[in-house]
Amino acid sequence: MAEGNKIRLGILFGGRSGEHEVSLSSAASAMEALDSAEFDITAIGITKDGKLAGIPELRRMVPERLLGRVRLYSAPEAAGSRMLPTSDAKEPPARGGDSGPEIIFPLLHGPYGEDGTVQGLLEIAGLPYIGCGVLASAVGMDKVVMKQLFAQAGLPVVPCRVAASRSLEAEMGSIRHWIETEGGYPAFSKPANLGSSVGVFKIHSESELADALRRSAEYDRRILVEKGIDAREIECAILGNDDPQASVVGEIIPAREFYDYEAKYVDPSSRLEIPARIPDGLAEEIRSYAIRAFQAIDGSGLARVDFFLERGTRRVFVNEINTMPGFTPISMYSKLWDASGISFVGLIRRLVSLGYERHAERMQRRIS
């Protein structure tokens, strides 16, 4: 621990994915909310081109009002490393001795951060970190494998079809036939590996199909085509390791036709309803599904599980799991736990404890 038994927390943020700006927002919220008497925070930035941010870049990535609350991390260049500072550090780096972080909060969203890559790097380095491990993070990012595991665990999922981006033109006819067989339009196209609804398109008719698929294919080597469900969007937060807990259930009321990137981060008309206005028995069923989904991917620490509640039938479908959800005081994840009795700061304290717990387990394993 740092002086006064402070928790030396490294907040890793930014990254190469299309969710770079969302990560900056999550990191700023955590930095602002945490008491400097309890947490010694080191800001560790990754630029959009995947390099370790130098001091000048960090000063642009961290809001000016927060610069006095955090240490800005920089490291000497390592020949041949992809993780290089993007400019010469003009200030001494915060590393080594008692000044460096002792546990990392990888507040990275999307590929190159939430997908197991950074988690693997942290495990190689022997550093404790918050959140899901390599496997759960990778599976939670890949919607194709995720849905296969959910189906194997007996969880209800929306019918879908997978297509390879490089052979998309050749598969266009069979995809069109699949949509017609599944009941027609609307349908959805989405990249297999991305979040925050980036690259997700609602296809209202056959005339929109080809363009939507091509646009989704720009983001990943595989795309997912899903049957459109007339549904309410329900979410549940998970906290824990081997004995996970589920929060109260909430509902997204999107400002747009569906909960796309604009509705999530731009249009202020989107709103959250916590708790969701659904029968208690249905809410309990969703909470049970959320825990099972978390366990199906071997999750740890935290996750948010998203559901569709079909109008008219009340059938529940597990849509996806997000292993590093948006993390601001007004994000669905933290608001669900606030409604369940755990404050934003209390949530981070609990996540730090869970990170240490999982790290201690890894350190006790035999390696020879």
Task: Report what the structure shows.
With 368 residues, this protein is of the alpha+beta class. The chain folds into 3 domains: 111 residues, Rossmann fold; 147 residues, ATP-grasp fold, B domain (D-amino Acid Aminotransferase, Chain A, domain 1, 2-Layer Sandwich), CATH 3.30.470; 68 residues, 2-Layer Sandwich (Dna Ligase, domain 1), CATH 3.30.1490. It contains 11 helices and 13 strands. The strands form 3 sheets. The chain has a 5-stranded antiparallel sheet. A 4-stranded parallel sheet has the order 3-2-1-4, sandwiched between helices. Strands 5-8-6-7 form a 4-stranded antiparallel sheet, covered by helices on one side. The chain is globular, with a radius of gyration of 21 Å. About 6% of the residues have low confidence.
